[in-house]
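Same chain as my last thread, 179 residues:
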Amino acid sequence: MPAGVTIETWHWVAFIGCVLFMLAVDLGLLHRKSREIHAREAAAWTFLWFSLSMGFAFGLFRWMGGETAGEFITGYVVELALSMDNVFVIALIFSYFGVPRHLQHRVLFWGILGAMVMRGAGCTSNDITDQEFDAKVARTADRPIPSGAVSVRQAVLFMVLLALIGFLVLIQFNLFAVG
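reply #2:
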């Protein structure tokens, strides 16, 4: 991270709020009814999300300079390349379980949401169990739990909340996969 830039709580709140807003628009507004998505529509959505990402990179370039924008674009390209294996695995899973094409977007959405929630619970669990170690390591000493910004009780409550949300996501996922 460039010198002089501090990530504050409102940055995280804004980021998470933006992600949740985009997910709500995706499933709640644009794909409310299950239907088959064809290649042309998928390409249009891919172009839209790519354009938003490059717009963000341009904003980074203007705000923080070329090095930061270059790091973002590098990370974007690496993540895009690494996600290709997921596409093939998802296609195999959908094929094996016979998920109808019109339900695949919805099943994928809930699967991704569940993965995000469980990742949050796992990271929180790791911070709780490794707090003494993290406090001794310079690069992790400023994490919320080792620095004292978040108590262990608050972190456990957050993890329980994430686990409950994950459980609800799994129930929703099963309803779409079975029904």
